[in-house]
Design brief:
Blueprint lengths: L2 E8 L3 H12 L4 E5 L16 E2 L6 H7 L5 H5 L1 E2 L5 H11 L6 H20 L4 E3 L1 H4 E4 L2 E4 L5 E3 L2 H15 L3 E4 L2 E8 L2 E9 L2 E12 L8 H8 L7 E2 L8 H8 L4 E2 L5 E7 L23 E3 L14 H13 L6 E5 L18 E4 L2 H7 L5 H14 L35 E13 L2 E2 L6 E3 L5 E7 L16 H28 L1
Parallel strand pairs: 1-2, 1-12, 2-9, 4-7, 12-22, 13-19
Antiparallel strand pairs: 3-8, 5-8, 6-7, 10-11, 11-12, 14-20, 15-19, 16-17, 17-19, 18-19, 21-22
Helix pairs in contact: 1-7, 1-13, 4-5, 5-13
The protein binds flavin-adenine dinucleotide.
Length: 500
């Protein structure tokens, strides 16, 4: 007999789990379909650091989701505040104002409440001291807008969400790949799935698709992001191959957002092709604002210190990919060693070190040595030495007169030992996807809702273009997932009532 549910959710990451939980809360019977086997569940969400970018007013908001925040921690921490206006400004600025204003507003205005909602469902949070706060004069000072992360990072987040889903009665099937949408007289009425090569149909009054982007699909990457993208390493799951997007397009959905854009970062040059939850690696290289980024020609090619890492890291992967051979080196001197996080010391890091720049470049595989030495000489000569270095603020310690100046944190590279780290491009997720209304209803080419179809997460287009403010992916997925679950449940239950 064919299975029948009020709501079917396609996907097994943060957006899907929020949708499933919310649909259950609104009284629907819910089936969640995860393509991955159980031990690899959780999509890209499981690979994240678990950071959520939300509107906050400092310690008071943080304490609402971290109830055991101690008085000592509060006294020793400047959380700052992050207003809705700042969040909207950041989304606008980093996306060059292409970001859909209605979608942006929905994420921003629901952000705090949604993190609190997750907390109420058993997700535990901690302050994000690691990467988003620097200790300055004995006090932690947050910068860049993100103050909390899920306990245990992405894995901790996803485990807590699965636990809640089971507790609230969501039915979960693993290793089941959705391949198409079923259409009936009143709209989408279920999904076609494949399990170990066997096809079946599952009926539902409403479907939420939250099956991620197409970053793990080499062919689509090359087709939509452009030539060379087949070379990128996938930072997260191998299961996000664009199925959800294709299924919806086949049913008449409107493509939306920046199909040629993606989130991509500096990533260990010799990392494996895909992420693997069983063999986690620390392949991010986020200390580049304090580095010189050098390509095979021995040249700089980007303003490493244009902004805080949080506002540049997601677009610099593409620039690395575009360099000859699709690689680069992050070069540091010993003055900033203490600012490099453990990722630069982890197993599998391609690192070289030397006491002179000549020795260093001899060890930097595939780099034009004379040009590198000239680049460093010219850089050092152009640094404004009268401005002091401060990693906590955009310190304005810049270079002058170079073809590509460095705007902040421009320390001369002059104090041995010197070190260099080889990086390539790691793709995180794709920006292009489906057009949705703020209610998460998937829209057709005439901006009309496709009845019965809702979407959330990475496969929603229109939110991110060119770049991305760190930690807004989980936030957007949670906000739209929660709305999608509610809307799908309400629609499904009203259909049932009418039929009855
Ligand atoms: C290494 C890394 C670090 C990151 N760090 C952060 C961070 O700290 N903060 C942040 O906000 N964002 C971060 N991101 C981005 C973040 O992962 C995404 O924005 C977010 O997780 C997307 O959630 P999602 O639920 O849409 O997709 P996913 O979590 O990727 O879930 C998609 C799900 O769909 C399933 N699926 C795919 N196809 C099918 C199919 N045909 N049938 C059934 N199921 C299917 C997949 O198996 C997967 O479970 C990071 C990403 C990576 C890779």
């Amino acid at each position: 007999m064919a299975e029948n549910y009020d709501v079917v959710v396609v996907g097994g990451g943060n957006a899907a789990l929020c949708a499933a939980l919310s649909a259950r809360e609104h009284g629907a019977s819910v089936l969640l379909l995860e393509r991955a086997p159980e031990e690899k569940r959780g999509g890209n969400s499981a690979f994240t650091g678990g950071g959520f970018r939300m509107v906050h007013n400092g310690a008071e908001t943080v304490r609402s989701v971290v109830p055991d925040l101690s008085e000592g921690e509060i006294a020793n921490t400047d959380f700052g505040e992050y207003t809705a206006e700042q969040y909207l400004d950041d989304l606008g600025r980093v996306t060059q104002y292409y970001c859909d204003p209605d979608l942006a507003e929905t994420v921003v205005l629901n952000s705090t409440d949604t993190v609190q909602w997750l907390h109420g469902r058993g997700v535990r949070f901690v302050p994000r001291f690691g990467r988003y706060a620097f200790k300055h004069e004995g006090k932690f000072k947050f910068f860049g807008g993100t103050v909390v992360e899920a306990t245990g990072g992405g894995r901790g987040l996803v485990e807590a969400e699965y636990k809640a889903a089971v507790k609230f009665g969501v039915v979960i099937r693993y290793g089941v790949r959705a391949t198409g949408l079923l259409r009936g007289p009143s709209g989408i009425c279920g999904v076609r799935v494949e399990t170990k090569g066997v096809e079946e149909q599952i009926h539902a009054n409403a479907v939420v698709i939250a099956a991620g982007g197409f970053e793990a699909n080499r062919e689509w990457r090359t087709r939509y992001l452009g030539a060379g993208w087949e070379m990128a390493k996938v930072r997260g799951t191998r299961y996000n191959t664009g199925d959800g997007i294709r299924m919806a397009l086949d049913a008449g959905a409107q493509p939306y957002g920046q199909w040629s854009g993606c989130h991509s970062v500096s990533w260990e040059r010799y990392a494996p092709d895909f992420g693997d939850l069983d063999r986690p690696i620390t392949a991010s290289r986020n200390g580049y604002p304090f580095s010189l980024m050098i390509n095979a020609n021995g040249e700089r090619f980007v303003d490493e210190g244009a902004d805080f890492r949080n506002y540049t890291y997601a677009k610099y992967g593409r620039i690395v990919l575009e360099q000859p051979g699709s690689f680069a080196w992050h070069v540091f001197d010993s003055q900033v060693d203490h600012l490099l996080h453990d990722e630069y010391r982890s197993k599998g890091t391609t690192k070289v070190q030397a006491n002179t720049l000549e020795e260093l470049v001899a060890k930097m595989e595939d780099v034009h040595a004379p040009k590198f030495l000239q680049t460093v000489r010219e850089f050092n000569a152009s640094v404004k030495r009268d401005v002091s270095f401060n990693p906590n603020i955009k310190d304005g310690k810049c270079t002058e007169g170079l073809a590509i100046n460095k705007s902040n944190w421009a320390n001369p590279i002059e104090k041995a030992p010197f070190s260099a780290y080889a990086v390539t491009c790691g793709i995180t997720f794709t920006f292009g996807g489906l057009k949705i209304a703020p209610t998460t209803q998937v829209l057709d080419i005439e901006d009309q809702p496709l009845p019965g179809l809702y979407a959330a997460g990475e496969l929603v287009g229109g939110l991110f273009y060119f770049n991305y403010p760190g930690s807004s992916g989980l936030m957007a997925g949670a906000v739209f997932g929660r709305i999608a679950g509610r809307e799908a449940a309400l629609q499904s239950l009203s259909n049932t009532k009418q039929a009855g």
